[in-house]
Write a structure and sequence with these properties.
The chain is mainly beta. 13% of the residues lie in helices and 44% in strands.
Length: 126
């Protein structure tokens, strides 16, 4: 019989391993940092972004959204949809700017069914 401490230790280790691996998708566990004030986001036809999380400095943020694929995808900031909405298709690129205060935001694709399919990512503004 396996001692309870061994079972507990193995269970805790497995839980930590699963949580560290992220939720699946192409960008699992990856955080992308803006360079020179430009946040680059790639949309994928697998209804995912190239990273699970992004980080930018507070203030005016330029967002470059590129599509790796052919489906129509959008990029909006939850709660700020009227301030920035980028749209791409057929490998295209779109860009725009938005002013963001420090905090945590969610980026997502507002094409019907895409967010529900997992096309969202965290945005940390510092």
């Amino acid at each position: 019989m396996t001692p309870p401490r061994t079972i507990l230790g193995a269970t805790v280790f497995a839980a930590l391993l699963v949580s560290a691996c992220g939720g699946g998708g192409a960008g699992s566990g990856i955080t992308s940092v803006a360079e020179e004030g430009v946040l680059r986001v790639v949309g994928l036809d697998t209804q995912d972004f190239d990273a699970d999380g992004y980080r930018v400095d507070a203030g005016e943020v330029t967002v470059e959204y590129q599509l790796s694929g052919f489906q129509n995808h959008t990029l909006v900031v939850e709660g700020r949809e009227d301030e920035l909405r980028l749209e791409v298709e057929n490998g295209g690129t779109d860009s725009g700017t938005i002013i963001l205060e420090p905090g945590r935001y969610i980026l997502y694709c507002d094409v019907a069914g895409h967010r529900e399919g997992g096309m969202e990512a965290r945005l940390l503004v510092e």
